[in-house]
Amino acid sequence: MQMQTLTLRGGVPSARRAAPPQASSAHLAASGPCLLRVPRSLRRRRPRSLRASASLEQEVKEVAPAPSGKSSQATRRDVRNIAIVAHVDHGKTTLVDSMLRQAKVFRDNQVVQERIMDSNDLERERGITILSKNTSITYKGTKINIIDTPGHSDFGGEVERVLNMVEGVLLVVDSVEGPMPQTRFVLKKALEFGHAVVVVVNKIDRPTARPEFVVNSTFELFIELNATDEQCDFQTVYASGIKGKAGLDPENLADDLGPLFEAILRCIPEPRIEKDGALQMLVSNTEYDEHKGRIAIGRLHAGELQRGMEVKVCTPDDSCRVAKVSELFVYQNFSRVPVESVGAGDICAVCGMSDIMIGETIADKVTGTPLPTIKVEEPTVRMSFSINTSPFVGREGKYVTSRNLRDRLYRELERNLAMKVEDGETADTFLVSGRGTLHLTILIENMRREGYEFMIGPPKVINKTVDGKTLEPYEIAAVEVPEEYMGSVVELLGKRRGQMVNMEASGPEGTTLLKYKIPTRGLIGLRNAILTASRGRAILNTIFDSYGPWAGDLSSRDQGSLVAFEDGSTTSYALLNAQERGVLFVQPGQDVYKGQIVGIHQRPGDLAINVCKKKAATNVRSNKETTVVLDEPLSYSLDDCIEFIQEDELVEVTPASIRMCKNPKISKKK
């Protein structure tokens, strides 16, 4: 039998592994096959071979003969399960939009909004993906289940949670920026799972695109992450997600995404299943519906799941309970479709289990056994949540008691695996840990929109003690900054104990990419400082690296706070004098209370001021009232307030307002 020679797509020579010469797009289109990664249990039984391009004539193909008394191993030829992973703003959701449109998911006259997968209000407002979401399309008779994942490092737990549902990933990389910190994180996780990777160089239509550099950098990243030879032989597809075009050559794109769909069918392995095995489904996600209750979502690993059947729900600690499947759904196009049964290898949604949790296994009632549970990385940042104790409590919120707050926080743990909640020192205080300040800020924003009132303390890093030494989390910070502002940014990072790892030119626009290893606590408040130093032109991206030795003390804020002297309503007369002391947060006619932070002091240390003072009335007449000219007050968002506050300060969060105040439990620093 004559063996074909597989050429490396987009490979480059490396000091560790020599890359074969790059194949032309015509050869790639003609040859088609990608390497089949054979399971370790089968590697001794047969030599490595090349998998032929996908044939849809049969749905299930036997892979290995089954030992006597055991279920047969098989693959489903009519299904592909993929996750789309990338760094933030590299175009994942926009690419999914084009895939859905070209798969005729929507009617020709149907009005479809941009980034349709970002259905959450917060996602659309911030322009980022926060939650992983499922959809599917059908291409040439093959069902392709697609999972859109977040790109921000704080939501890495969402990516880790869904990777066990798929057999391959589309790694989307920007044609100008190339691999970024989150690209490294998601690729590392995909390679650890042994998944096949198709690299999509997106935004290829940008004037400053540099596809050759991006492919070379991506290949080097594979080498650094100790990818196998089969994983390094990745297929590269060049695409413009917003225009809905793709191709195997950056200079010759097709009029649609056909080359991308073909690469998915050719290079992503079919789901490997136990055709006649006992039922096993790992719950990787949960949703809630007002009518159907809790919905469990996961990939069926073995057996067949039917509507109305009784199953066994197994927890990681081997305790089991019996439940019944009331309704069963599969993902078809952009909706859930009810079905009577689901075969192994497909992704489905199950109703009827009100207490099911992520990480549990839906198994056969008689012979079912649990699958390994989902493990995610530990949180690195902690914040305290407590009930609102300000004089304005209850004015705007619906849920204000500690019981309401406790129930809501522990309910968040049912879906958010990367978060932890602990009871604090008092009955009305809770410690919430997450991957970063943005991870916790999204929870806070969702809670205030649901009608909760509470107070939050400043973010603190979670340290570890190993062999009597204190270790703190470090992150890799990548800053893209124009050359004229590089000095100010380098000075800022140095003050926060950052150590430069790399510095290189980034694109032809005269920007420089700085990479620093910096303590996580040094990143708190850094984003606003860098934007101020660079006139808003710098871009900061971070990713967790490792735990390292304690870097020492560092100061994150040089200026103090202006604190209200008494309760009352602010006046123009008082604010005119107060604005000489610093920058104010309040405007005339606004209610404030004693201890509320109303501005930023221009010097270190706090200053108590009277912003409610009224002009004394006299019997002296004036021909004209004095015109008061006030500066525009500074408006801080929730993210800004969390980064601004110090150890002895709190953020008061209500559905209509966000205020900052001094913590009455901590004595004022002298």
TrEMBL record:
GO BP: gene expression; response to cold; ribosome biogenesis
Annotated GO CC locations: cytoplasm
Record-annotated Tr-type G domain positions: 77-272
Domain of life, per lineage: Eukaryota
Region (Disordered), start-end ranges: 1-75
Comp. bias intervals (Low complexity): 13-26
Basic residues composition-biased segments: 40-49
Record-linked InterPro entries: BipA, BipA_C, BipA_GTP-bd_dom, BipA_II, BipA_III, BipA_V, EFG_III/V, EFG_V-like
One Pfam family of this chain: GTP_EFTU
SUPFAM superfamilies found in the cross-reference section: EF-G C-terminal domain-like, P-loop containing nucleoside triphosphate hydrolases, Translation proteins
Name under which the protein is recorded: Tr-type G domain-containing protein
Organism: Urochloa decumbens
